[in-house]
Amino acid sequence: MNELDNEVHVDVDTNACVGSGTCAMIDPEHFSVVDGKAQVVAERVPATEDLEDAVADCPVQALSVKR
């Protein structure tokens, strides 16, 4: 499997995001909070367990993953 096969695109619904920082606490390698909204550090990121946990634990389901 090549490295690109494991990459995903993460969308942040900035209208739904409440800036709780849960994603950044769970997966600081891929998320940060800027001006009260979650941001993904890169357009495509490796699909990791931490990434999946961050998306699943978002309190307002503002994060989604696309392969």
Automatic annotation (TrEMBL):
Its cofactor is [3Fe-4S] cluster. Gene3D superfamilies: 3.30.70.20. SUPFAM superfamilies: 4Fe-4S ferredoxins (SSF54862). One of its GO terms (molecular function) is 3 iron, 4 sulfur cluster binding. Keywords: 3Fe-4S, Electron transport, Iron, Iron-sulfur, Metal-binding, Transport. Ferredoxins are iron-sulfur proteins that transfer electrons in a wide variety of metabolic reactions. This is Ferredoxin. It comes from Nocardioides daedukensis.
